[in-house]
Amino acid sequence: MTEAASILLVEDDAEIGELISRYLSANQFEVSAVRDGAAMDAALAKRRFELVLLDLNLPGEDGLSICRRLRASKNLPIIIVTAQGEDVDKIIGLEMGADDYVAKPFNPRELLARIKSVLRRANASSEDADAGEKMQVYRFSGWRINISSREVTAPAGTKVAMTGAEFDLLHALCEHPNRVLTRDQLINLTHGPTAGPFERSIDTLISRLRQKIEIDAKSPRLIQTVRSEGYMLSAQVTRS
Fold first, then answer.
1. What are the residue boundaries of the OmpR/PhoB-type domain, all occurrences included (predicted)?
2. Which fold has domain 6-130?
């Protein structure tokens, strides 16, 4: 992460946008602010950004639709910033591919900590990719998980699309096969100590992973639930 990491803020409230921009600029970030999805697309077409701060309640195309579209076309970290604080909104945002979630009103220091955490993870992934394939591929039950390129390949050879959060969770399970991991441990392994908004989303992510890698998601054999404890990847995992 560079000292002047560039952030694209998509926020239709001019006052809130100015407050966020001023605070982040004072903390060595370069911030560009736009008010809707169309302006965001124009900004992204002109230059490269390292992270998007995205409000949900936007005029025109809503933030969840924008988040889904961004995730499908770009490997760009996304933090949702919104007044909608219900758990269902957090989970939907996560399912759409958000890397983190901050509910208004928030402490600016919390927002700053989450931005730095997401950028650190993105930077680490980039460094892994630059390092090449060595020690970056997991295999189990015919599945191939390429950590460098963040690609998941099914036993049949087809690529399986995953959100950033789904991939990070699968990565964590691969690193600790045949070991029970609690929800708190999975949160810390995937999002670190600032992962508050994701506390109730692990079950949702597990369910989505099962739909993608299990033969029968209702009777899972790979990702096992250990009652009152957590989850376990029940497979022989090799790393190369």
1. 135-235
2. Rossmann fold (3.40.50)
Q: Is 227 exposed, middle or buried (0-12, 13-18, 19+ CB in 10 A)?
A: exposed
pLDDT digits (tens, 9 = 90+) for 123-132: 765 555 555 4
Prediction pTM value: 0.65
Joined tokens for residue 212: 């993608």
Pairing of strands 137-140, 143-146: antiparallel
Which residues, 6 or more positions from 57, have their beta carbon under 8 angstroms from its beta carbon?
12, 63, 82, 83, 84
196 vs 52 pLDDT, higher one: 52
CATH topology classification for 137-239: Arc Repressor Mutant, subunit A (1.10.10)
Q: Where are the domains of the chain?
A: 6-130, 137-239
Q: Which strands form 78-82's sheet, in the order they lie side by side?
A: 30-34, 6-10, 51-54, 78-82, 100-103
Cβ-based neighbour number of residue 233 at 10 Å: 25
* Distance of alpha carbon 11 from alpha carbon 16, whole angstroms: 8
Question: Residue 135's closest CA among 7, 48, 4, 240?
Answer: 240
Contacts of 195 (CB under 8 A, 6+ apart): 100, 187, 188
| Positive or negative: CA dihedral 56, 207, 173, 163 | negative
DSSP codes, 125-194: HHHHHHT-STT-EEEETTEEEETTTTEEE-TTS-B----HHHHHHHHHHHHSTTS-B-HHHHHHHHHGGG
Tokens describing residue 155: 């036993």
| pLDDT of 102 | 85
